[in-house]
Amino acid sequence: MEYRTIGNTGIKISEIAFGAEWMGEYSDEEVTQLVQYCKKQGINSLDCWMSDPDIRRKLGNAIEDDRQYWIIQGHIGSTWQNNQYVRTRDMPKVKEAFQDLLDKFKTDYMDFGMIHYVDEVKEYEEIMNGEFIEYVRQLKKENTIHHIGLSTHNADVALLAAQEEEIELILFSINPAFDIMPATEDLEVYRDSSKYTEDLNSIDPKRVELYQLCEENNTALTVMKGYDGGILFDEKESPFGVALTPVHCIAYALSRPAVKSVFAGIKTIKELDEALEYYTATDEEKDYNKVLAKSTKRSFEGQCTYCGHCAPCPVNINVAMVTKYHDLAAIQEEVPESIQEHYNNLEAHASDCIECGGCEERCPFNVEIIELMHKAEALFGK
Predict the structure, then answer these.
(1) Is the pLDDT of residue 77 over 60?
(2) Which domain holds residue 139?
(3) Which of 199, 173, 184 is closest to 303 using CA atoms?
(4) Which of residues 219 and 239 earns the better pLDDT score?
(5) 323 and 287 share a domain?
(6) Rounded distance between C-alpha atoms, residue 55 and residue 68, angstroms
(7) d(Cα 250, Cα 288) in Å, to the nearest integer?
(8) DSSP class of residue 14?
(9) Mean pLDDT throughout 307-328?
(10) Are strands 78-81 and 145-152 parallel, antiparallel or unpaired?
């Protein structure tokens, strides 16, 4: 297992983590067995958004002897009402549900207190200017939560959160399909195959901006929906018309800037082992780009995904990074000073391109890289 540090917290989190939402259908013994197996494999983090008291109890019992080992993302605003999950901002219910989470986990703190499931910009603004964030801040002041996080599926919301210094971690839905979809306040859009139109063939600019901003601000990203609920494993259901593997999906998510960990949605030890194959897989087996290049429904043809297959460059241009900065700057009215500075600090620049064409020969998506270097040179002036 490999570990990555979350922002400025000093916390080292396993690259693959335990997304524990499926535990309702299993016995206490089965849940404990799975949790212990996770620990044995070096996994040291779990996410608990579930409000079902029985699921919380099972997980709490499973980690009771190892509480200090586990880095827990505990959600604030996920409640259990009339025997069903309800997301709410009703403060009495929010407070009661979060106390229940602590009680069921037999702990007096959560490592990350996650502002739960904020997909609307208006709701985000209300939270950050109202009694909800005051409650979260009080929890942190009391050391009941050690750090503040937020979960969202909407890049617009995530971009706002990444600009908030007190939000140190964002749980965000990341996979190749979601990355090409424009920001939306409706999660169901991501799950509607008819919304994946032919013109969606490259990473959405808002997501490029988000990844770069999080990298610059040292805001950590952890990943949910990495498998798109298993849809990406089925070539008939996948928006790409090709089947990816758990290894492909994990490799994709971990290659995004600022991503620290992928919370794998697993039910069994077998499914966990399939995720852990990432560490024994060859570069070929991790290569999601070659699979996506064979897409029958839509393609990244001609679009850079920053995969790095273009390397090595004989004059040491980091083509993927130059392209990232170009794409991020090109969507702005003017080149932001921070992006210009990052570009200037690169070892080599687009103007150094000798047009040898080796990068284009290696690119799985047939990107016209030489032309792109000319555009970057014109944009950055160097």
Answers:
(1) yes
(2) 3-292
(3) 199
(4) 219
(5) no
(6) 20
(7) 10
(8) E
(9) 86
(10) unpaired
Q: Is 79 helix (H, G, I), strand (E, B) or coil?
A: strand
Q: Answer whether residue 299 shows pLDDT above 60.
A: no
pLDDT the model gives residue 235: 83
Tokens describing residue 377? 């040179």
In terms of domains, do 235 and 345 share one? no
Residues 278 and 348 in one domain: no
- What lies within 8 Å, CB to CB, of 315 at 6+ separation is 348, 352, 353, 354
Residue type, 342: H
Q: How far is CA 305 from CA 114, 321, 364, in A?
A: 30, 11, 10
Residues 219 and 261 in one domain: yes
Residue 29: pLDDT above 70?
yes
For 328-355, the pLDDT digits (tens) are 787 777 888 888 888 899 999 999 999 9
Residues 27 and 79 occupy one common structural domain: yes
CB of 250 closer than 8 Å to CB of 264: yes
**Where among 292, 307, 335 does a domain terminate?**
292
Look up the pTM and report it.
0.80
Q: Are 207 and 179 in contact (CB under 8 A)?
A: yes
Q: In b/e form, how buried is each residue of 291-327, taking b as 16+ CB within 10 angstroms?
A: bbbebeebbbeeebbbbebbeebeeebbbbbbbbbbb
Q: What is the tally of structural domains in the chain?
A: 2
Domain with residue 184: its CATH number is 3.20.20.100
Report which of 56, 74, 66, 64 is spatially closest to residue 111, judged by C-alpha positions: 74
**Does 213 lie in the same domain as 168?**
yes
Alpha carbon distance 131, 36 (integer Å): 38
Residue 265 has phi, psi (to 5 degrees) of -80, 100
- Using alpha carbons, select from 368, 378, 197 the residue that is nearest to residue 297: 197
